[in-house]
Specification:
This protein is of the alpha+beta class and 97 residues long. It contains 2 helices and 4 strands.
Length: 97
């Protein structure tokens, strides 16, 4: 997987947010990061960036775009874009002892 799409949001010359998507370039893509500076949240920056990234993924005919969110409140945010919960689990490799 490599960085497939990157969208940044600038306010003047200040970076206030970005979204990064990684993909194999053929079938799957994954939103690795969506960040908006806390002072700039709830002003539509994240929504604009998400809309642009989703449009790009669809234009490239990528089969599946997924995201893993860390806070329950973000579930509703992603659902607004058409994401839905899947029956799957996330696992992480333990550090070597």
């Amino acid at each position: 997987m490599t960085v497939f799409s990157f969208c940044e949001c600038l306010w003047g010359d200040r970076l206030v947010g970005y979204v990064e998507v990684v993909s194999n370039g053929v079938t799957d893509a994954y939103i690795q990061d969506l960040m908006v500076h806390p002072e700039m949240q709830n002003q539509g920056f994240g929504t604009q960036m998400m809309s642009m990234v989703i449009k790009e993924i669809r234009e490239r005919n990528i089969y599946m775009l997924s995201v893993i969110y860390g806070e329950e409140k973000l579930k509703e945010y992603y659902e607004r874009f058409g994401f839905f919960s899947m029956l799957c689990g996330q696992m992480q490799l333990r550090d070597e002892e």
